[in-house]
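Worked example 2:
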Amino acid sequence: MAASLPIEPADLLITDELHHRIAHKADYQREKLAIQDLARQMAQQPDQVLPHLVHLAMELCGAHSAGISLYEAQPPGPGIFRWRHLAGRYANFLGGSAPRDFSPSGACFDVGHPILMTRPERVYTFLSEAGVPNYEVLLVPLYAGQPDPLGTLWVISHDEAVHFDSGDARVTSELAAFAGLALKMIRDASVLRASEERLNLGCCHEGRHHQPLTHCAAEVRDRNL
């Protein structure tokens, strides 16, 4: 009997099933309220938006695990994905990582649109560490106004009877768009804080420790008049 051929990453993809399956009835009012809640939280507690969003993705899709994987470049290599804001059975793997060139998120990056995989641990064996079968994994790229994605939002079914459909792809895509915006706002705020700290440090280095930041900024403004 001929030996079976090894399973390749492409063999895991069942993305076409998203469009062939009958989508479950959407609860648009629930989705609208969820997005409004995220928007309020973005204004009041921006650091809690992404953890809340991941739980929403898991809840709205009927998934058992969910998370955000953010890409980290590591030149000259291909980089890694860092697992952030995990929920469900994968929550204990917060801060873990996966290779850019050998992971479900990497496969999603390669095509730039949502993908659906079945039992990805057959190829990506590190996923077996969760100790539960990953019957289906739906991944969506995160964009923030740039051509290259920042990472992925993903949901997992650990139950053979729970399948994802086009409605789940739509919901996760909408949440991914919000997550991309939130990531951009959080990073922009971080850059602004770093700039303010450098300006404060510059004032101190000039020996004017008693002068506030606003005074230093005013001097910069006056010099340019």
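The chain has two domains: 9-188, 193-223. Residues 166-205 form the longest helix (40 residues).
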